Amino acid sequence: MLVSPYVVHFILFVAFPVAFSIVLTFHKWNIISPMEYTGLNNYIRLFNDKTFLKSIGNTLIFLVIHIPLQIIVALFLAEILNQKIKLRGIFRGAFFLPVIVSGVVVTILWQQLYGYDTGLLNRLLTGIGLDKVGWLTDPNIAMSSIALMATWKNVGLYIILFLIGLQTVPTQYYEAADLEGASHLQKFFKITLPMINPTIFMVVILSTIGGFSLFIEPYIMTGGGPLNSTVSAVLYIYKQGFFYYHMGYAATLGLFFAFIILAVVVIQKKFIEKDH
Amino acid sequence: MKNLLNIIIVVLFAHILNSCSNSNKDSRDEILYWCSNDNYEIKFANVSTADWNRDNPKDQVKYQPVPEGRSSEEIILAAVVGNTTPDIYSNMWQGDVEAYAQAGVLIALDSLNGFLDFLYERCDSAVIEEIKSLDGHIYQIPWKINPIMLIYNVNLINDLDLQGPPQTYSEFFNASQKFQKDVDGDGYVDRWFGYSEVLVTWWQRFFDFYPLYLASSDGAPLVKDNKAFFNNEYAVGVFRFLQTLYKKKYFATEQLTARQDVFLASIIATRFVGPWEIAHAEKFKPKGFEYDYTFMPVPDGHEGPVYTYGDPKNIVIFKTCKDPQAAWNYIKTMINNDGDLRLLTITNQLPRRKNLNSNPFFQKYFTNNPKMKIFAEQSKYVRGTDASPVLKEVFDLISQEYEACVIYGKKTPEQAVKDASDAVDLLFLK
Amino acid sequence: MGSIAPENEIGNLTLLPKSLTLSSYSQMLDKIPIGGAFINSLIVASSITIGVLIFGSMIGYALSKLVFKGRDLIFYIIIFTMTLPFQITLIPQYIIMVKFGWIDTYLALIVPYLINALSIIMFRQYFKSIPDSLIDAARIDGCNELQIIFRILWPNSMPAIITIGIITFMASWNEVLWPLIVIRDESLMTMPQLVTLFAVGGRAESQLGVKLASAVMLALPIVVAYLFFQKYFIQSMASTGIKE
Fold first, then answer.
1. Residue of C nearest to A160 (CA)
2. Distance from CA of A180 to the nearest CA of C (A)
3. How far is A152 from A164, CA to CA, in rounded Å?
4. Mean pLDDT by 10 residues, chain C (244 residues)
5. In C, which residues are within 8 Å of B257 by CB distance?
6. Complex ipTM
7. How far is C26 from chain B (nearest CA, A)?
8. Which CATH superfamily is domain B149-309+388-427 in?
9. C-alpha to C-alpha distance for A139 and A148, rounded to whole angstroms
10. Where in chain B is the domain with CATH 3.40.190.10?
């Protein structure tokens, strides 16, 4: 049967891993030694692991900054690009470029912006007489700096999505509103926003899933510092599993984190998606 | 159609089954010895194996440097997992051994003929206790050390009107304060007494916290009996010492090493470093530059010898070796008197043996290399690492508290050390 | 802000200390096997893309046009796997790679990605819109199922193929977490992986120019491809969003 490769693949790379993962959470294993049954130890460790809980917090902070920022900026730019301005195609193209370029490249580039002494941003600031900012060295704003970069990188994709969404709004609505003398803002909030709610929801889900996978940016940019303020959950799991080879513990972290992701997505669905 | 798919599936499964069985290594006739890829050590391996092979046609030893560019740790791990380990490996960091020993991939050397006798002749009992595994057996042979000491700029120290390099914390602070300068007048300090990378990476502590801790505590362990041992006045004292250095800007918080060697450029007057710096300094020092080494600073009122960290690298024999006794016979030639002298002269690294500074056999070398003399003296008071399979992580946890307390000043030393200690205890949860 | 994008790359090059960046490029080439990494990425990404297209279309076809027991069950399972966060399968998948001995081989990079739920769904969606009559006619002519897929469906599904092909290629090209986990041998590393390790590790020896040079090299292939196929790229990414 045609689907047999899928079944094989599924069992091998989905079903078995999930089952094995659950089994692993009750063991201690570092690959070279035999597995050791440890019962609930990994779970106890998880709940006492301040750094892991912090990493989840960091990831959530990232999302809380990144998602609204993304929606506002992307929507705003989409609105502008929706008008028939010159060079619209070129702007769209330019915005989209960072989306497909590797996150590695974007991170390395932005490191040059954010560098404390030699970074472009701080040089500009001191040039006009302001103080340097610890973009990546201040534990309170390091994560925000990364969120800012992530927004810049992906805004192109969401602009495209919003553009499509905006274009589905029937023009008659706007014309009717014009007749009633509605201002641009009123039109936006009363007509546009409700009509593009599905698009907004989609943007939220996509950037949420993307945000939960945050790994390579902090890995390259800060290694998780300063003071563990940029350790994302995936980065921490990676370190536990592939740097210390605590396979059992890492599997536990992964399982727990997966549940958190599902919970967040479900909550988002309840609150953001409105019935059509 | 069905056929094609069936073939695909069969091939896939066949491959899976094939890969599941461990591929048999080709049986080796010769003993395979992996050395590090340091140029001098390669030379050493070359000479050492050539000599042995000449006299031992039956047990030929082949040397091979570990591939460049990768962390040797990962290479060994990959070899262990893939069952492709060499017979002898000489660059094993002491901290890694316990994990491999517990995994059962190393030969228990104390079972080999003549091993214990030879060992007790070469090394003193403190060292032998240190390298013993938690199960009481010995899985590693102490080979070489590179003790961390305090290098200082002789001229700069003399300019400060001190009676010599600082030995205690107070003297250190005193000297630092005198040395601190803002040379270009921009309001920011640009001459610091010393420097240590403010990286949070776990191994960075070998160059600041750990040697200071050993010096202060006379070689106390960090972990013992599967518990954190370092929640004591020594660790707290070291944290406080370093915290003060950064707070008062005696040490720089910015990253200085991106540019030149700041010690040779007289931007800093001291550094915690090992003997490898000598070769570098001789090559690049400016005219008139004079430097020397002394012991790590200790708390005021400290008495007795000053210990330090020795970055020990040891030799191990993997279980895949077909003739461990023959391998051991070769290793003996690496670490007997001739072998150790060869190590010194070719690589300028110290063999971890007793009486290095009093043994007349090595006298000539130290006369020719006076700067190394103090390391020979120090070699008696050197510690490696504690036997623990999670050592890397212990250092990582300490590093995180280090960052919070020493560099960012957000915690008191007492709190930081306690938090690190608690986190380490959690690690050992059974 | 977007217009800063191309400017950034140039701006960085000019604002840096004097020395011309060409020397950085040659230094970089000396230090890391970036050419090899490029080829690795090419091999891996191409294989995955081809695999995904083949398997995705096969299974998508089966789910959309054929009737068999368990069809709906498999469909729901596929939907379910799409919602499963990868964080949960990461560790065991690595362990499977170790057990099979696939670490440090192309297999580890390619095989887990050969079958992609999204592509199956997209193909199924697209195939539904192809009239059954076309397929029935082919059957009468004596075509077997595989022939139907490749001779009839594919030529009629170019938009879907291009879309899925581009998405898959791009995603696998940029993938870096998985290679970091299963590949330790430098000669097998993919391009983003190599540049990452170069940027984070000590090999660059804090030389900025060299690091940036490697970043530019990494960006180059995608940028070039983008310049040529811009329209398709944007369309592809947009349709992913819509399908969600």
1. C238
2. 33
3. 20
4. 44 46 66 83 93 88 80 81 81 85 88 87 83 81 77 81 87 91 85 84 60 80 81 71 54
5. 206
6. 0.81
7. 18
8. Periplasmic binding protein-like II (3.40.190.10)
9. 15
10. 31-139+313-351, 149-309+388-427
